[in-house]
Amino acid sequence: MKKIQLISDSTCDLSPLLVKKVDLDIVALGVTLNQKTYLDGINLTPREMYKLVEETNEFPKTNAATPNAFYERFKKALDKNMAVLYTGLGSGFSKTFENAHLAKNLLEDEGYDVSDVVLVDSKNLSGGSGLLILKANLFKEQGLNVHEIAIKLEELIPRVRVQFVIDTLKYLHLGGRVSGLSNFVGSLLKIHPIIKVRNNKMEIGQKPRGKLEKGLDVLVSGFTKMKEQGYIDEDFMFITHTESFDALNYLHAKLDELITPIPISTEAGCVISSHCGPKCIGTLYILNENYKGDD
Q1: CA separation for the pair 52, 33 (Å, rounded)
Q2: What single string gives the DSSP state of each residue in 133-156?
């Protein structure tokens, strides 16, 4: 059986340690700010990006990973007679997944056998695809081939749960994701909306008012409910954030005693950070096969 090269993009928000552990190849998306384009996680960090936003009052624009970037990664693996499994940013959020297909087609046109280049649409973002990568690595270690792993991931995708609390509506507003009035009213009322990612879309859930902790408690409550009903896949859970260290400690204090191993802390990259803004934080996990509902 062929060895498998796992590939994702920079929005999977896995730490360098996890990337190294699963031998993951990362394709970077772009961020354009102040008339300069950067590669996410390569020559721009979220902290540097936020500083530039404050200095220029310019909202960062994000760019899909290019077909050429995927072409180079896929070709490198094929030249080593390896199979390829890619999953990353969902097709509903970017042309990145489409560009991965373009690269695969180009390689086929050049005479490469791409039957073992498998692309899986995560229909998610950030650690949502990161969770799938870690599960793919588990399946890989169990000896499954690339097509068997893809089938397993497709079964998991509807059960991936990603939800996060927004501290400021400014970045959603600047990106055209809420109206000016909603931004104004939300700021006055100190609303910290819960954003859920489901089936390639972001949806607004509850809108707790007051301190950020009110939103964090909503996240904890949602996870606790699923845990008590026996619906949590306990292999991996993430707490992913954008410069939100106090909230990170708060969630760990609430969640660490509920799941073993404890949640993995990850920091969002520039692309995700550019849309949700600083001090955003979320819980990311997978529901197991016992779950039959639709939350």
Answers
A1: 8
A2: HHHHHHHHHTT--HHHHHHHHHHH
H helices of 205-288, in order, are 212-228, 245-255, 270-276
Q: Locate 291 and state its tokens.
A: 């779950």
pLDDT of residue 256: 97
With 0.85 as the threshold, say if the pTM is over it. Answer: yes
CA distance 90 to 84: 18
Alpha carbon distances (Å) from 62 to 38, 39, 87, 252, 280: 9, 10, 19, 31, 18
**DSSP state letter for 64:** P
Q: Which tokens in the block code for residue 38?
A: 């950067």
Rg (CA), the chain: 19
At 223, give phi and psi (nearest 5°): -65, -45
Q: What is the pLDDT of residues 31-79, one digit of tens each?
A: 999 899 999 999 999 999 999 998 988 889 999 999 999 999 999 999 9
Residue 281 and residue 239 in contact, taking contact as beta carbons nearer than 8 Å: yes
Q: Which of 184, 217, 218 is nearest to 204 (CA)?
A: 218
Sequence-distant (6+) residues with CB within 8 A of 205 are 163, 193, 194, 195, 196, 218
- Is 184 a residue whose pLDDT tops 90? no
Topology classification of domain 4-158:
Rossmann fold (3.40.50)
Contact between 114 and 79 under an 8 Å Cβ cutoff? The reply is no
- Considering the four listed CATH numbers 3.30.950.10, 3.40.50.720, 3.30.365.10, 3.30.1180.10, the one that applies to the domain covering 159-287 is 3.30.1180.10
> How does 261-295 read in b/e, with b if 16+ C-beta sit within 10 Å?
eebbebbbbbbbbbbbbbbbbbbbbbbeeebeeee
